Amino acid sequence: MNELLYEKPDLIPHDLAAEQSALASFMLDEVGDIRRKMVKMIKPDSFYLEDHRKLAEVLWSMHENGKAIDAVTVTAEFKAAGSLNAFQTVSETLIVVPSSVNGLHYAGIVRDLAVRRFLILVGNRMASDAISGDKPPAEMLLRIRDGVDKLLSKLQPDASKEGGFGELSERVDGMVSGIIRNVAIPGFPLLSNLSKMTMPGSVAMLVGLPGDSKSFLVLNWLWRLICDGTECAFLNAEQSRAWMLQRLIAMLSGDWNMLNDEWLRNNAEIVTKRMHQSSQMIEEVGKSIYQTSISSMSKMEAAAWVEEQCRTKRVVFIDPLTAFKKTRGIPVDEQDEALGSSIKTSAEKHGSSVILVTHPVKNAMQLKDVMTMGDIAGGSTWQRFTDVVMFLYAHKPPKPVEIRRNGYLDQITVNRFLHIDKSRNGPGSNTWLAIDLNAKIDWVEHGVITKKIKVK
């Protein structure tokens, strides 16, 4: 708390009597139940007075190490820790309350006042950043959020020191009840089940070379999810919303001519009719699409956008991840690290899923047959912060493959392969799927490829 500077110390939220009562209750608890609960509610940093913080550090350490706690042992430990008035502090604390019965009530007061002090500190930092104007607003908000998370963590117990049974029970109960579940993408049952890429808290990445139709594929996923009632948000960082919606109307019409400007000019009546027929769907999908100029959004601003959308949307898309401008003075790998960490944190905190679209590094396919996670633009950052990594390959002309579908082997010809390279939540790691972008501008999932294939 020493870093909290205030012109009028008397106005800083604190209650010394409650702090003394909480510490006394901790020492007087013969059963140990109050102590076990109190260390989960507050930490030594939650106390305002320096002597109280130091005494709490001693008590918390003794409790963690299973040492006996009474006036004599605590005084000895307190002296060993360097306190010059250990006996006086312990004695004055113990006479405040006769028993530990109300200890958790006092601990609650200490906790709430600590939160208020932390908020004052964060508010002061926020005001300082806003006045200086040195940072973009979105970056400031992201920094504030990170600061709040760090400050609040001081009030919470270290989960690594607990067994974690409660966390596991909560997760399993959520899965059993269906609260924690993968959202299947209609039309892609194999991909959905094998990758589990829309499990709450997951981050998935689709990687493909230019011209492999990865943007067309995720637009198809967006449309299918919205039709199925899933709340989505799509950040289009490279093209306009109208550009995307023109591809949507082409998909809905099943006609590639809807992308041909000459055909559009010669068939204005047909085009108008198709647009009116699909107007409701165009509006629904259009509401979920956000566009940004490549020159205007930084990686930290993109992270702030993901955080905002994850609060209300179940599935969030970014296409492409590499379009955001770099912040001067900060190494690119550090910016990628911050962006990846923030996206993963937002997805986990709000139970959303994030699907990222990107491309491989230059010449990734020049000397080898297939792409690997080491070829992703951004390097090891995205290997660590993603739960699912998929590679899309396009083939002209189409390639023959053997697939398994509905329990039978079949020989087909397809123009796309989708390689699920990594799947933390599902059983599909290193699985190849045969898919098609057909003449009707529809994506078709055929089955799992059974034999090793050559991509080139």
Based on secondary structure, the structural category is alpha/beta
Number of strands: 9
Number of domains: 2
Share of β-strand residues: 15-25%
CATH architecture of the largest domain: 3-Layer(aba) Sandwich
Based on Cα principal axes, name the global outline: elongated
| CATH homologous group name of the largest domain | P-loop containing nucleotide triphosphate hydrolases
Report the mean per-residue pLDDT as an integer.
84
* End-to-end Cα distance: 61 Å
Radius of gyration: 29 Å
Helix and strand succession?
A: HHHHHHHHHEHEHHHHEHEHEHEEEE
Helical fraction: 40-55%
What does this structure look like?
It is a single chain. The chain is of the alpha/beta class and 456 residues long. It folds into 2 domains: 9-153, Orthogonal Bundle (DNAb Helicase, Chain A), CATH 1.10.860.10; 189-237 and 292-449, Rossmann fold (3-Layer(aba) Sandwich). It is 46% helix and 16% strand. It is built from 17 helices and 9 strands. Strands 1, 2, 3, 4, 5, 6, 7, 8 and 9 form a 9-stranded mixed beta sheet that branches. A hairpin with a 2-residue loop joins strand 6 (388-405) and strand 7 (408-423). The longest helix is centred in the N-terminal third of the chain and has 30 residues, at 103-132. The chain is elongated and about 90 Å long. The N and C termini lie far apart (61 Å). Residues 1-9 have low confidence and may be disordered.
